[in-house]
């Protein structure tokens, strides 16, 4: 019988190698796989290329991964938010690279990568610095810029419920980028608030089918920033 459950977050991320490309789900804190990210910090992989909507906040999760100098390059839409100071400081010091992508284009690049589409044309960014050096074409009198699809070696995502086979259900908008990241990664690693036996999830409710998931770790009580700091989990 197929069983994709693993015992710990540490086991789930053990084979992420130096230099890997990692997609990380989450829109701010919503849907962020914080425990998997901190397990990756403990694991020690570095020189990572990370694809995410933003660059984290505070000193936990993705921000902590960046602060520990594990990330060589960020591909994201919002490199700075109200609570983001780690990335801007390292970027201005020349210690991390940035590929800035409009949010809708980022989502479509990930979706295209998962669908096996190597590139597509969009009008977004035409006439801006983000379009410089990229192929342009005109369709029906309008100019478009070509954007490549995005794939990754690993995806770290979070769901509300997962079964033993790896079928996933999300909690409302906390799904955000997770379904398309699962499709675009070679190895998808999931932290689930709840787990269940195969067949317990209604097929009508499953958002990400098991085909796109390789590992699931049960995290019953995901930690918030204040809890992590109280436990001495603030990094570095």
UniProtKB/TrEMBL annotation:
Sorted UniProt keywords: Transferase
A Pfam family: CoA_trans
InterPro entries referenced in this protein's UniProt entry, alphabetically: 3-oxoacid_CoA-transf_A (IPR012792), CoA_trans_fam_I (IPR004165), CoA_transf_BS (IPR004163), NagB/RpiA_transferase-like (IPR037171)
Family: Belongs to the 3-oxoacid CoA-transferase subunit A family.
Protein name: 3-oxoacid CoA-transferase subunit A
